């Protein structure tokens, strides 16, 4: 269902691009210049870019400290709000149903 929803806008956009290229041939050069990062001028496909060997480790080194900093900030803000009586959680006992 999602694919069918995406198929119409994509085909419509491709039709618009092909009409613009047909109307003005210099637009084809703009389109080719945009795609030049994938292909050489001869039309050959460029080689796959090098991958970072420790990419997953770098992601963990960025995400885990970010989670700890975010948790610390939210804990401090919650304590500040409770100390100043700006927000005090209710002491409802829902376990005694």
Poorly predicted runs of 5 or more residues: none
Total number of helical segments?
3
Report the portion of residues in β strands.
Answer: under 5%
Give the rounded overall mean pLDDT: 77
Shape: elongated
Helix content: 55-70%
Give a quick account of the main beta sheet: strands, pairing sense, barrel closure. Answer: none
Radius of gyration: 28 Å
Straight-line N-to-C gap = 44 Å
Structural class: mainly alpha
Order of helical and strand elements: HHH
Number of strands: 0
Transmembrane segments: 54-73
Main location: mitochondrion
Subunit structure: Component of the uniplex complex. Interacts (via the transmembrane region) with MCU (via the first transmembrane region); the interaction is direct.
Family: Belongs to the SMDT1/EMRE family.
């Amino acid at each position: 269902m999602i694919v069918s929803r995406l198929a119409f806008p994509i085909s419509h956009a491709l039709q618009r691009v092909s009409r613009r290229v047909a109307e003005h041939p210099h637009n084809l050069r703009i389109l080719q210049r945009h795609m030049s990062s994938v292909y050489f001028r001869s039309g050959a496909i460029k080689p796959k870019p090098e991958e970072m060997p420790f990419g997953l480790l770098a992601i963990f080194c960025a995400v885990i400290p970010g989670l700890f900093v975010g948790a610390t900030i939210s804990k401090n803000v919650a304590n500040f709000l409770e100390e100043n009586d700006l927000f005090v959680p209710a002491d409802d006992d829902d376990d005694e149903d």
